[in-house]
Amino acid sequence: MKKYLTEFVGTFLFVLTIGCTVIPGAPGVIAPLAIGAALMVVVYAGGHVSGGHYNPAVTLAVWMRGRCETRDVAPYMGAQLAGAGAAAAVAGFLVGAPQRTMTIASDSIAKALVAEFIYTFALAYVVLNTATAKGTEKNSFYGLAIGFTVVIAAFSVGSISGGAFNPAVALGIGLMKIVSISQIWVHVVADLLGGAAAALVFKFINPDDR
């Protein structure tokens, strides 16, 4: 239960930061930096308890890699989705609704799928290599690396896909009306595929790291 509560709290704080920076339209680089920093701090805060996933795609990748027990997968994902939903409700209370909801044009769906896949792959790949690999055990940089991967992703393709890279975030930003809730399937599908691909690549590169 402690692990699941940690995943709920971390995802809640992460998604709340997204809502409270994106909805008011924080200028310039503030939102991506704040969002990446939020992920970094909750990874450091809860990594020793739950692994600090806060993302169903990361949980999938870590499970496929062999560092998450099968019995924990569904509860982790449930806690992450619940944290995102709670964050959406609190963000709505604190800052209201956005003036505009991002809708992906029909001729840009493929671009959004590719963007979400690539950067969720990158995020999960960084998690696996910095937080679960034998060669980087007990390091102090994993949270910074993970957080800044999200910063890079948000700056690179946030305007193309909405920048979720996380099915729980997709749910949260859909409920907050930052993106169209009818289109969060784009994020869910691409993000889970990206996490799975990262696990397969990690296992291919590191066949002896079990």
The assembly state of the depicted protein chains is: single chain
Helix content bin:
over 70%
Query: If you average the pLDDT, what whole number results?
Result: 96
CATH superfamily: Glycerol uptake facilitator protein
Major sheet attributes = none
Shape: globular
* Alpha-carbon Rg, integer: 16 Å
**Which architecture does the CATH hierarchy give at level 2?**
Up-down Bundle
CATH topology: Glycerol uptake facilitator protein
How many helices? The count is 8
Distance between the termini: 26 Å
Output the CATH class name: Mainly Alpha
Number of strands: 0
Structural class by sheet pairing and helices: mainly alpha
Provide a descriptive summary of the structure in words.
It is built from 8 helices and no strands. The chain has 210 residues and is mainly α. 73% of the residues lie in helices and 0% in strands. Helix 3 (56-65) runs antiparallel to helix 4 (70-95) and helix 3 (56-65) runs parallel beside helix 8. The protein has a single domain (2-205), classed as Glycerol uptake facilitator protein (Up-down Bundle), CATH 1.20.1080.
Q: What's a quick, concise take on this entry?
A:
This protein has 210 residues and is mainly alpha-helical. The model has no long low-confidence stretch (mean pLDDT 96). The chain has helices at 2-22, 30-50, 56-65, 70-95, 109-132, 142-161, 167-175, 184-205.
